[in-house]
Design brief:
mainly alpha
Length: about 260
């Protein structure tokens, strides 16, 4: 292995370790970077700074993270896709198609009981896990948001409490739901606690079974949003900062662009 390959592998391991730092004592929560400090870090990494980041008076306050792209189409979609894919094997059916059909039947019962306004039109295997891709629920943001409570309901029905991985997934689903419920109660302290606990448990899941559970850097963007003091998450805009910074760092986008 050449020097460049070793350096690249070490860089990848360092980035993975940084992603797993999600707890309340994570260094990034107290060691905050200024806007200019972020630009300096980009340059030190031999990245290129997007010219838009050099505009006069541009700073962090000009950008907002929005819940729709960060949570509904990001963290929640990833988790629900992984949860559905992991638990569908416990449903009756001789094939994955038959088991997903049973899962769809359960979702329809959930819709009827909850009078959910935003619904999936159907459910296919590819909507949970596309060929060659990691599991991720592919649907509109509002439909994903409405399925967060169903994720808890499904886990409570199928999880074996004696199985560490499955029990962790159940607790993870419950904390995600608690975080979503804070959008209505506007309890910023509970939102921070629930999102942090969800993220920590997701790290545990990835360690227990890295093939079934996958962490993405977007989890940190969501934690930043949930930790904002005295403000409610928004559901529009807010993706520009991520695009500009990733463009400057020349980082690959999250899988499937989300």
């Amino acid at each position: 292995m050449g020097g460049g390959e070793v350096q690249g592998e070490l860089k990848e391991q360092s980035a993975l370790q940084a992603v797993t730092q999600c707890g309340s004592d994570a260094p990034w929560r107290t060691n905050r970077r200024s806007f200019h400090g972020m630009l300096e870090e980009i340059l030190l990494r031999d990245g290129r700074v997007n010219p838009l980041l050099s505009l006069p008076f541009l700073e962090q306050s000009c950008f907002r993270i929005d819940w729709l792209h960060c949570a509904d189409l990001g963290v929640a979609a990833d988790f629900l896709g992984q949860l559905f894919h992991r638990l569908q094997v416990k449903l009756p059916g001789g094939s994955v198609q038959a088991r997903v059909a049973k899962l769809w039947e359960m979702i329809q019962h959930f819709y009827s009981a909850q009078s959910s306004p935003d619904r999936l039109p159907n459910l296919s295997v590819a909507m949970i896990k596309a060929p060659g891709k990691h599991p991720k629920l592919k649907c509109q943001g509002a439909a994903c948001r409405c399925l967060v409570p169903f994720g808890v309901e499904l886990a409570e029905k199928l999880v074996d409490p004696a199985d560490e991985e499955e029990a962790t997934a159940l607790h993870c689903a419950r904390h995600l739901l608690q975080a979503y419920e804070c959008l209505h109660t506007e309890d910023s302290n509970q939102l921070k606690k629930s999102s942090t606990r969800f993220a920590v448990l997701l790290v545990d899941l990835a360690r227990l079974n890295s093939k079934a559970w996958r962490l993405k850097p977007k989890i940190h963007m969501w934690l930043e949003l949930c930790a904002e003091e005295g403000s409610s998450p928004t559901c529009s805009g807010g993706t520009e900062m991520r695009i500009l910074v990733e463009d400057s760092l020349d980082l690959p986008e999250d899988e499937e662009g989300a």
